[in-house]
């Protein structure tokens, strides 16, 4: 790994870490398990388009492990992992398909993130009626996915030279 | 943004709108309150019975529920996030309050069963 690449990883992980912290401070409009703003997903989207799909995967896992052990009860990490993995997988697939721009891919990521978390929550407590709250989760996934997609576009535009130079 | 992104957003909004419509059109008032702890039914209440109940688990975790005038809420919980308490009152069938950290949930059920009972009587 080139030093510059390592520095980028470090920077992204630090950013994702801060976003996760900010997120834990903001009260969410629907107090239903599985609903998260997913601010940290911004870093994953930027990494996916600026560095690559594999890099985004590493970043997403490292962030979840770090945040899980620092701010949250490690036993709740399965929810973040389920959300993070499903979100990464769906974004990787749709990025490859080239059907949508970064905004579309980010929306798919946001919604998958919430769906992944809700699936594990349903299995964890054996409460299938959590699915009743799916429409609320979709609203939150759509809003945060759109915002993150637009923001990621701005960030990448600003850092374009940096990423091009890096490759 | 591509044209496809707009289609995607419209499609998702359409799905969300339909599911909200379905939820509101078919929702019915429940008659029972089910308390489930660690995947097992722990206790059952009548939704019209005003009461407060404390769930105390062997691992020390606790949740307190309140049933009042056909509504249920979680008033206290030992979980770190307190999402269950913040959720507030529920009353319709299939609505539930889940406390993930404590593996506890309360669910409204039995609107139909209540009607069946009425017919049987
Ligand atoms: Zn709770």
State the CATH architecture of the domain at 32-109 in chain B.
Sandwich
Q: Overall 3D geometry of chain B? A: globular
CATH top-level class of chain A: Mainly Alpha
Distance between the termini of chain B: 62 Å
What is the CATH homology-level superfamily of the domain at 32-109 in chain B?
N-utilization substance G protein NusG, insert domain
Low-confidence stretches of chain A: none
Q: Provide the structure class of chain A.
A: mainly alpha
Query: Helix segment count of chain A?
Result: 7
Portion in helices of chain A: over 70%
Strand order across the biggest sheet of chain B?
2-1-7-6
Distance between the ends of chain A: 12 Å
H/E element order of chain A:
HHHHHHH
Report the strand count of chain B: 7
Count of helical stretches of chain B:
3
Radius of gyration of chain A: 15 Å
Name every ligand kind in the structure: zinc ion
How many domains make up the 3D coordinates of chain A?
Answer: 1
Quick recap:
The complex is a heterodimer of chains A (167) and B (121). Chain A is mainly α.
Q: What does this 3D model show about the protein?
A:
The complex is a heterodimer of chains A (167) and B (121). Chain A is mostly helical and 167 residues long. Chain A has helices spanning 3-25, 41-50, 53-70, 77-97, 102-125, 134-158, 160-166. By secondary structure, chain B is an alpha+beta fold. Helix content of chain B is 31%, strand content 36%. The longest helix of chain B is centred in the first third of the chain and has 24 residues, at 3-26. Residues 113-121 of chain B have low confidence and may be disordered. The interface between A and B is medium-sized, with 31 and 31 residues.
Itemize the secondary structure elements and their pairings.
The complex is a heterodimer of chains A (167) and B (121).
Chain A: H1 3-25, H2 41-50, H3 53-70, H4 77-97, H5 102-125, H6 134-158, H7 160-166
Chain B: H1 3-26, E1 32-37, E2 40-46, E3 51-56, E4 62-68, E5 71-77, H2 83-86, E6 96-99, E7 104-109, H3 111-120
Antiparallel strand pairs in B: 1-2, 1-7, 3-4, 4-5, 6-7
Bound molecules: zinc ion.
